[in-house]
Design brief:
Length: about 525
């Protein structure tokens, strides 16, 4: 038999336990042999990987591909560019000098915990009095606008699950959570061509980082949706060859609706025609329903049992009405959806677990793989409930490195140990995927793995040291763990005979904790074909 390609001269880490082999054979996009069996095959091409370590293609279980890609053209006001509020305002003023009056200036990435406070409309008015200005918080859970924008908003009708922050009875320009939807008449929907271009630009970056598959964490509506017809942008990218990584799309709960159905049918809630999780193919498919239960930790809007540190009257709030969460989950579960619920605060997590438990009791379903996105602040009893219910927690290791000090400040020392846990989930028997929530933080998987191992905040503090994992466990999270969370582990996540030949060649072994942070991506392959080389 003459196969498509044999890759030699590498240390190939195979299976869930990363057993070494020295060769890999590919035919028809799948692995057909490893080690000696691969080297003995006749091949159309033999590629020497010159001593690289080969691991499964990285899979990001929670990222915002279109948001990241479209945001690359926005004004960068993150701490990498702006160390102070004066720097932020100066950056806005400089951009205003380049654009005609009346145009939009959209900035991304500011973090009030690093600037000392949020920007405000008065500062933005001074910087750009004749432009529409919107600066997005790094989490995406809030934004600041100037007076020219604020004066166009219907502040008398703020959506439930959000608020317009005021001081002395006057709005500061800060819109939190669902209050950002007030901007929809001005900025939504985004043209499909812009979304498609963002998808392309994101995918190009992902390949340089060894990412071969992702789950897009919300399309269609809500805070993370770009347009009600967003799926069309991904289909157009697929047709044009610019969908560069395998993609599963979480569909915003707002996009689902009651369905007309026959007596006895259990599909009564979802997308038209009964489309649900799993529809599609190995390049583009529908993933879970995405539901927002609460807000953010560094923004102090997530739903907590006890107040945030230093704010005795602030326990956060729900984005979706607490009484509605259970019914939405029940209907989606009954109709066959996998469900991915954003829950960061410990109170929100408790409510979501109650809803999952009730839905499973009423409509038992094996291997549901419902998820809690972030699952950020959780005590031991609820952690045990996560495991007992078969729920998949989806924490982000990189958060500790980039926004860890803001999280510590919000929780106080007595709750630090509950923050973005990893080891606790693994020890309880959960499968933990690797993910970034990009563009909230840098989404490079090798950086994410290093942070899962070291858990150092920007000041060098080790956040909840008992929650550290080994380098091998971090690699498994970004490969098998994320494929499992996306229900594609039969095809992806490990390098085994019969699996898709998606892999990344690295300059060193990522199971070596000392090497993490210094490893380079040498090449990325999808279906056995190299699609990126450094």
């Amino acid at each position: 038999m003459r196969v498509d390609a044999v890759y030699t001269g590498a240390r190939v880490l195979t299976g869930e336990d990363f057993r070494p082999a020295d060769a890999l054979a590919v035919h028809g996009g799948r692995i057909i042999a490893l080690g000696d069996a691969a080297r003995e095959l006749s091949a159309a091409r033999t590629i020497d990987l010159a001593g690289a370590t080969v691991v499964p293609g990285f899979h990001d279980a929670h990222n915002h591909m279109a948001w990241y890609g479209t945001g690359l053209d926005e004004l960068d006001v993150s701490d990498a560019r702006c160390a102070s509020l004066d720097d932020v305002y100066a950056a806005v003023a400089a951009r205003a000098a380049e654009l005609p009056a009346g145009s939009w200036i959209v900035g991304r990435g500011y973090d009030q915990t690093k600037l000392g406070k949020h920007p405000d409309r008065h500062g933005l008015d001074r910087a750009a009095p004749r432009h529409h200005v919107k600066l997005k918080h790094t989490t995406g859970h809030m934004c600041v606008v100037n007076s020219l924008v604020l004066n166009q908003l219907d502040l008398a009708n703020v959506p439930a699950g959000g608020d317009v922050v005021a001081e002395g009875g006057e709005p500061t320009g800060l819109l939190r959570e669902q209050a950002q939807r007030l901007l929809d008449p001005l900025l939504y929907p985004v043209p499909l061509a812009d979304v498609e271009r963002g998808i392309d630009r994101a995918g190009q970056q992902y390949l340089t980082e060894g990412i071969t598959s992702v789950q897009e964490a919300g399309i269609g509506s809500g805070l993370v949706g770009n347009t009600p017809i967003e799926l069309a942008a991904y289909q157009r990218a697929r047709d044009a060859g610019t969908l560069r990584v395998r993609t599963a799309l979480m569909v915003a709960a707002d996009s689902l609706h009651p369905l007309e159905h026959g007596d006895g049918d259990d599909v009564d809630f979802g997308l038209d025609l009964g489309l649900r999780t799993g529809f599609g193919d190995d390049w583009l498919r529908i993933g879970p329903m995405k539901l927002f239960s609460d807000g953010s930790l560094v923004g102090r809007t997530c739903a907590m049992h006890q107040p945030f540190a230093g704010e005795t009257d602030n326990v956060g709030y729900f984005q979706t009405a607490e009484d509605d969460i259970g019914e939405i989950i029940r209907r989606a579960h009954r109709s066959g959806w996998q469900i991915a619920t954003h829950a960061i605060g410990d109170r929100a997590i408790s409510v979501v677990l109650d809803a999952y438990a009730a839905a499973l009791a009423e409509y038992p379903r094996a291997d549901h793989r419902h998820r809690i996105e972030h699952c950020a602040v959780i005590d031991q009893p609820d952690l045990r409930r996560v495991a007992a219910l078969g729920v998949i927690p989806v924490p982000q290791g990189r958060f500790v490195n980039e926004i860890g000090e803001g999280m510590r400040a919000a929780l106080g020392p007595e709750r630090e140990a509950w923050c973005y846990r990893q080891r606790g989930f693994l020890d309880a028997g959960c499968v933990v995927p690797g993910s970034s929530d990009r563009p909230v933080v840098n989404g490079a998987p090798l950086l994410g793995m290093a942070d899962m191992v070291h858990r150092r905040t920007p000041t060098g503090h080790v956040l909840a040291p008992d929650e550290r994992v080994s380098a091998r466990e971090a690699l498994r999270a970004y490969t098998y763990g994320s494929a499992y969370a996306g229900r594609v582990e039969r095809d992806l996540g490990t390098l085994d005979v019969g699996k898709r030949a998606d892999f990344v060649a690295l300059s060193a072994d990522p199971t070596d904790a000392d090497a993490l942070g210094e490893i380079r991506v040498l090449a990325t392959a999808i279906d056995g074909a190299i699609v990126y080389e450094s």
